[in-house]
Amino acid sequence: MLRGLTGAGLGKLESTEQFIELAAKYGFQAVDIDALGLVESHSMDGARELLAKHGLVIGSIGLPVEWRKTEEEFLAGLPKLAQAAEAAAALGCTSCCTYVLPSTDYKAAHFMALATRRLRTCAQILGAYGIRFGLEFVGPHHLRTQWANPFIWTLEETLDWIDAIGESNVGLLFDAYHWYTNGLTVADIEKLRVDQIVHVHINDAPDVPLAEVRDNGRIYPGEGVIDLSGFLQGLQRIGYKGAVAQEILTAAPPADSPENLVQRSKAGFDKVYAAASIS
């Protein structure tokens, strides 16, 4: 499994170039970045050279489409999705991901109908470029009542929804934090097929009651109470070999420098990978 980073939790990065350089310096193998932005700023050849120079691949891109709001906003984003997919594919990235909030101000059944159609369309566009589409269920309890109507926040519901979307390139963005806040176990991971997982996020949680774990209260891998060795071993047992990307969401921006935070991230990965006997 590749050690990966997102920019979340790394403080005020000056540029994508700085992010890439720090990731490589501290032994990471994958970065989640905006592939299209990288191509637009460096050219295709320049982007390829930058990644190759630092021995990195792109783990995943984010979905550049607003699918949660109006139809007009959704449709306006589709041309950029095609451009982003083309750029990602040309740089060797095969994953695109989005998150699914566990409640909504829309009527849930109507929102489900709209979201299913919209995400199916996104999956079809991504699939034309050989890119898989990961949906991330979001587990923290406080978000389940943040908006008026409950929506989806469990693994089982998300898998059922993926089946309903009906495109073979759709799977899970599987996040250790949401696995934990749903009270899932290693056995739940082992029930999955590896082809159901598109991408993985890793982070840790403070020692507070499960119902009080906040989405923006995440801490670095190995510094909290999540059984990350079990999480990684479960993924290894089902044959997952893709990127495991750190994503740290905090209530306030980190005060430390990006370099110190990436170094701290490396220490966390070293700890949890060693505990899971993963090289």
Key attributes of the depicted protein:
9 helices; 43% helix; 9-stranded parallel β-sheet; alpha/beta; two-stranded antiparallel ribbon
Would you mind describing this structure in some detail?
Helix 2 (35-53) packs parallel to helix 3 (71-90) and helix 3 runs parallel beside helix 4 (108-127). 43% of the residues lie in helices and 15% in strands. It has 9 helices and 11 strands. It starts with a strand and ends with a helix. The strands form 2 sheets. A 9-stranded parallel β-sheet has the order 3-2-1-11-10-9-7-5-4. A two-stranded antiparallel ribbon has the order 6-8. This is Sugar phosphate isomerase. One of its GO terms (molecular function) is isomerase activity. Keywords: Isomerase. Residues 20-252 form the Xylose isomerase-like TIM barrel domain.
Write the layout of secondary structure elements.
Elements: E1 2-5, H1 16-25, E2 30-31, H2 35-53, E3 57-58, E4 61-62, H3 71-90, E5 95-100, E6 103-104, H4 108-127, E7 132-137, E8 149-150, H5 155-165, E9 170-175, H6 176-181, H7 186-190, E10 197-202, H8 228-237, E11 243-246, H9 258-275
Parallel strand pairs: 1-2, 1-11, 2-3, 4-5, 5-7, 7-9, 9-10, 10-11
Antiparallel strand pairs: 6-8
Helix pairs in contact: 2-3, 3-4
